[in-house]
Amino acid sequence: MVCEKDPLVQKVCELYEKISSLESLKPSKDVNMLFTQLVLTCMPPSPIDVSKLCKRIQEMRSKLIRLCGEAEGLLENHFSTILGSYENPLHHLNIFPYYSNYLKLSQLEFDILSKHCSNVPSKVAFVGSGPLPLTSIVLASFHLTTASFHNYDIEPSANSKALQLVSSDPDLSERIFFHTSDIMDVTNALKDYEVVFLAALVGMDKDEKVRIIDHLAKYMAPGALLMLRSAHGSRTFLYPVVDPCDLRGFEVLSVFHPTDDVINSVVIARKFPMTKHSIEQPLGPTKLPNKFFDIEMFSPLNHVNLVEELDIEEQRS
């Protein structure tokens, strides 16, 4: 069992103690330094399996993910406020320190989407867009330049700040929309979207994440695509993991594990067509070939900037 003796785990525990003792997680010299150290510690590819961590470390990891989520939200809120003070906020997005990561992640997600989407989507939803909806902005600006983006966030202040970023742009202000809703209260509207993105920090623990995925499976249109952000190896100390078996009601198409400075893994799945059986029966886990788990868990990782792609369709051939 991987536990306290592992050097990586020791370092993460040390940083957790420092981060959890901070009076505030708002951007500051100390906060920025500690989270930078944490990201750099967790970034190198690692074969660590969080499911084999001892209970104490599992509990620490859960708390650390919540701290990361809170700090990320405060960071985005801080920079959204700054950007909103400009006459043309979208001309200054590069002041956000992780903007280049969003450019890379959005390019990756667009490439994955293009491989599995026969038609260019016209209507996209993003769940958990926050005050700085960079994914929607980047995809709408550079990749899906005719699609409309409907962003859902539970916080009215987040949507208000986000709206201010796009309102001065004549194109994006007509294609990017914001809805203040708990996604669990959104039902029939979900049928309108050809693609739904689920942010990494929507559903901070396994049970909550699965409840949200089950809700999306119930209301998304048959054949619609769900794109999720997950994590792999040591990066699972930063973000929750989405396992293929969590995607009940969906066919998992591919899982991508970047090994560069893009932290999130990307999962793409297709909503199963509705059948009489699927309506009458409760959602069950999607059974995947054992080969998927063998490759996903044991494929050797390297330190070059490659993306490991697992195509379920290819495995079945």
From TrEMBL:
The UniProt catalytic activity note for this protein reads: 3 S-adenosyl-L-methionine = nicotianamine + 3 S-methyl-5'-thioadenosine + 3 H(+)
In its UniProt record, a GO molecular function of this protein is: nicotianamine synthase activity
Which biological processes are named by the entry's GO terms? nicotianamine biosynthetic process
| Name assigned to this protein | Nicotianamine synthase
Give the family this protein belongs to, as stated in its UniProt record. Answer: Belongs to the nicotianamine synthase (NAS)-like family.
Q: Which Pfam families match?
A: NAS
Enzyme Commission (EC) number: 2.5.1.43
**Gene name of the record:** LOC111296000
Name the keywords, alphabetized.
S-adenosyl-L-methionine, Transferase
Primary role:
Synthesizes nicotianamine, a polyamine which serves as a sensor for the physiological iron status within the plant, and/or might be involved in the transport of iron.
